[in-house]
Amino acid sequence: MTAIILVWNPDEWNDWTYPAVLEEVAETGRHLASWDIGTSLGSAAGPAGAGNAVGADAAGVAAGAEAAGTDAWLVLQGRHGRGLIGHGIIVSERPAPRIQTPDSASAAGAGAQDDAQPGATRADAHPGAQAPSPLYIQVDFDALLPAGDQIPASVLAETVPGIDWGALHGPALAVDPAVEPLLRGLWGEFGPVPADPTQPVPGTVPAAAVTRVEVNKYEYSPDARRVCVAHHGTSCAACGFSFEIAYGEIGKDFIPVHHLVPASQLGSAYELDPITDLVPLCANCHAMAHHGVRTPRSVAELRRIMAAAGFLTGQSVTPEQLQAQQDARRILEQH
Ligand SMILES: [Zn+2]
Ligand SMILES: [Zn+2]
Question: Is residue 3 within 8 Å of 70, Cβ to Cβ?
């Protein structure tokens, strides 16, 4: 399956509040959007000015390239900068002429609005329309770079030649399958850093090779994590494990955070307090907090379990530290 390039020129279309979209992707792993891909799908060359004019050898959107499961690369154009800024997956079965809000898309299920005859749908949606109406696809954006951090057109041109990255004429272009591994490589090198390092950054492996998992968005919010770790430190609240002490430089500042409030108890008005509701837990303790229970075990419970197993006793306390504690207690008792 070939991938698709979505050309985004904020000078022409900027309904996105990009920082909010970025935050949503960071917290929930995705942002669903309707994307206008022009009017003449399936045509390699397309009539001039029809909306899918192409740069260099890249063909117009090839038939089938816009099907569900296709990788979509978001490329920024215009005076705000040019370059690769995001990745997503097409979730609609096929392009449709109607604008669909993300809400109605998720409520109806992707592609569900296309139950009618495809031809009839188009005609009904725009009765008497002279010009072909633009077609929309639903894209689940799953990895985005902050504005300004896009992989520049010059870097793209060096690594992925044959496409005029500085002058893409949108709105959507098919990507030569031979080019895809190069894009993935670049994205792996310069793309976003995952909150969970055991998970691949979306886009760095073919969509067909990964399954999407739901995550607790409170445990993946970068801002909330920062506040939590600034307050509680980077050692595990249950066992005291420090990734930096154990692994040195590569473990510096690394600690997963755990959301203490059971998800089943969250009301719709819930607002996260990163200091009281999040706690740093090492990967082992985090797994054991969730393992086999619907309501996560508390930190105190984890500590009790580890102490009962003899694991916590004296664990991280050296004889010198023990002596220092005894000395301190003796001094305090003398006064
Ligand atoms: Zn731990
Ligand atoms: Zn957790």
Answer: yes
Ligand closest to Cα of 239 equals 1
Residue 222 and residue 204 share a domain: no
pLDDT at 41 over 60: no
Whether residue 108 has pLDDT greater than 50? no
pLDDT for 192 equals: 87
The amino acid at residue 5 is I
Domain co-membership, 175 together with 265:
no
Q: 300: CA distance to ligand 1 center in Å?
A: 12
Domain that holds residue 169: 4-209
**Residue 331 domain flag:** no
Domain count, the chain: 2
The ipTM of this complex is 0.94
Shared domain check, 69 and 18: yes
Residues 276 and 166 in one domain: no
Residues with CB under 5 A from ligand 1 (ion): 236, 238-239, 241, 282, 285
Distance between Cα 191 and ligand 1 center (Å): 30
Residue 282 Cα to ligand 1 midpoint, Å, equals 4
Examine the domain organization and report whether 95 and 135 are in the same domain.
Answer: yes
Residue 55 pLDDT: 36
d(CA 44, CA 87) in angstroms, rounded, equals: 23
**Full 3-state SS string of 41-60:** CCCCCCCCCCCCCCCCCCCC
Ligand 2 mean position, distance from CA 304 (Å)? 18
Q: CA-CA distance, 118 to 121, in Å (whole number)?
A: 5
Whole-number Å distance, alpha carbon 218 to ligand 2 midpoint, is 9
